[in-house]
Amino acid sequence: MNKLISNKYTTILEAKKGQLEELINTSKNDPWKPIFHIHPECGLLNDPNGLSYFNGEYHVFYQWFPFGPIHGMKHWAHVKSEDLVHWERMSVAIIPTEDYESHGAYSGNAIVKDDQLLLFYTGNVKYSDTERDANQCLAIMNKDYTVQKSTSNPVIKGVPKGYTGHVRDPKVWKDGDKYYMLLGAQRENLTGSIIVYESPDAVEWNFKGELKTSLEDFGFMWECPDYIKLNGKDILIFSPQGIEANGHDYKNLYNVIYAVGKLDLDKLTFDIEYIKELDKGFDFYAPQTFEDNSNRRLMFGWSGMPEVEYPSDKNMWAHCLTLPRELSFEGNILKQKPVKELESLRKDHLNIKGTLNNNLVDIENNKTSYELDIDFTNINSDDITLKLFKSENEAFTIYFDIANKAVFIDRENFIDKFAEEFGHIRSGEINVGENLNLKIFIDRSIVEIFINDGELVFTSRVFPLESSTGIEISSKGTLNYNIDKYTLERGI
Ligand code: FRU
User: Fold this and answer.
1) Where in the chain is the domain with CATH 2.115.10.20?
2) What CATH number should be reported for the domain whose range is 347-488?
3) Most buried of 91, 130, 199, 441, CB within 10 angstroms?
4) E strand or H helix at 272, and its extent?
5) pLDDT at position 5
6) Does residue 1 carry a pLDDT above 60?
7) Contacts of 132 (CB under 8 A, 6+ apart)
8) Could you tell which of 103, 107, 124, 321 is best to mutate to test the pocket of ligand 1, judged by most ligand atoms within 8 Å of the CB?
9) Cα–Cα nearest to 82, from 115, 108, 57
10) How many CB atoms lie within 10 A of CB 378?
11) Collapsed DSSP state (helix, strand, coil) of residue 99
12) What's the fold here for domain 12-338?
């Protein structure tokens, strides 16, 4: 797409003099670049990796191709924070220089062991456009942020019998005195699955077998498996590819699922009670979770989609991570709430209260990075509509069809369009009673909508004109509204 990307499989060590500076300069003043969402200075970001709380700080790594907005040679970029909100860019943590990772250091997670942070990742090896292999690798970060690749690398060489070269994205955790690793895998019959390894020391790994679930034939590949325990429930999160759209679900090219049930590591089974889509927006993929020092289960996702071109590509950068979200399991629902630390970014508070009675109200705004906390009460109406990014030419619509228990978001009305082949509406089921609560974070080109305390979440990218900042609410019936609006400051 650009002369700067002459070879998509080169590392940052091979950058020409001034090349990265030029790329950073090209993307620096892009008004679509978020100010409090983790994003790349240039090039392409995808999955969050190695999420951890280590030595008194939060660490976030992410998949990064430095030289342009394409999926080329993936590095692990690194940012750290004391408060989950203000991020400092660190040196690149993993640069794929070895034969066992010749085509990229792919995704994986991190665990703390003996005062070190162990970073597990997949060494991606490509022989041709269709032939590939995968090695599971380990890198070790010390308290001084230096990273060394393990001398035992690859800690798992190649893929087990019965699977294609699509085996990746280690999720490692410790249970008792053993370590376990889940990997997303494609069976030779081209269906997706998860396989399990076991280790006494997190270095020497033995293949245990495939995790049996009732989802035998569910897409052609499962990426980025994650396993958590919340409120006594086992939850498996993964990103299946090749699932057909169905009602409100699976409308994106690829989607993210969580399965609630019971994991049995001896029998290698995960008994599924039910599955659900994790986020109903246009741009959410490959999330990862971790536990912090106050035992919160936190999650970041990638706000982007593979194989889709985005309007910011022309400025030589692509994608961002979601905000950190705290997960909880309440009343059989997996809830996602933006972490409370985000409140420290607030300034310029505006409170607006009133009643809607078959009319509309405009909320004054000229900011491009802000938060809205909205409470609707005494709702006596069949619908509520919110318009964000509103101007003469543009609008992002959130529409509650209360009678039909559904909410729709629509991003058709933007001048810069993208991913249109996947439609411009997303939706979810919601039973609106008398009250409704919304928390909305807008950061230039990303909008995250948390409904009813994170019961339903929509994450989407939009690329508005800088002047499209209007906010409008309307309803055909009656309701009371109480809206807090905060301008949000830079965090990265
Ligand atoms: C998910 C994914 C992972 C892989 C990484 C490569 O978006 O495809 O399966 O490890 O991205 O960048």
Assistant:
1) 12-338
2) 2.60.120.560
3) 441
4) strand 269-277
5) 57
6) no
7) 103, 124, 125, 126, 165, 166
8) 107
9) 57
10) 12
11) helix
12) Tachylectin-2; Chain A (2.115.10)
- In this structure, are residues 177 and 200 in contact, taking their beta carbons and an 8 Å threshold? yes
Query: DSSP state, 19?
Result: H
Residue type, 44: L
Choice from 62, 168, 241 to test ligand 1 binding pocket (greatest atom count within 8 A of CB): 168
Q: How far apart are CA 365 and CA 361, in angstroms?
A: 12
Quick: pLDDT tens for 168-221.
999 999 999 999 999 999 999 999 999 999 999 999 999 999 999 999 999 999
- Ligand 1 contacts CB of residue 74 (under 6 A): yes
pLDDT level of residue 129 (50, 70, 90 thresholds)? confident
Task: Give the amino acid at 191.
Answer: T
At 4, the pLDDT band (50, 70, 90 cuts) reads very low
User: Any idea what the Cα angle at residue 346 is, between residues 341 and 347, rounded to 5°?
Assistant: 155
Q: State how beta strands 110-113 and 116-126 pair.
A: antiparallel
Q: Please, where in the chain does CATH 2.60.120.560 lie? A: 347-488
Tally of residues, the chain? 492
**What phi-psi label fits residue 169: left (phi over 0), alpha (psi between -120 and 50 degrees) or beta?**
left
CA–CA separation, 486 vs 440, rounded Å? 11
Instruction: State the pairing for strand pair 43-54/317-318.
Output: parallel
Examine the residue annotation and report whether 47 is marked as an active-site residue of this protein. yes
> Which amino acid residue places its CA nearest to atom 12 of ligand 1?
106
Report yes or no: 455 and 333 within 8 Å, Cβ to Cβ. yes
Q: What is the DSSP letter of 16?
A: P
Phi, psi of 13 (to 5 degrees): -70, -20
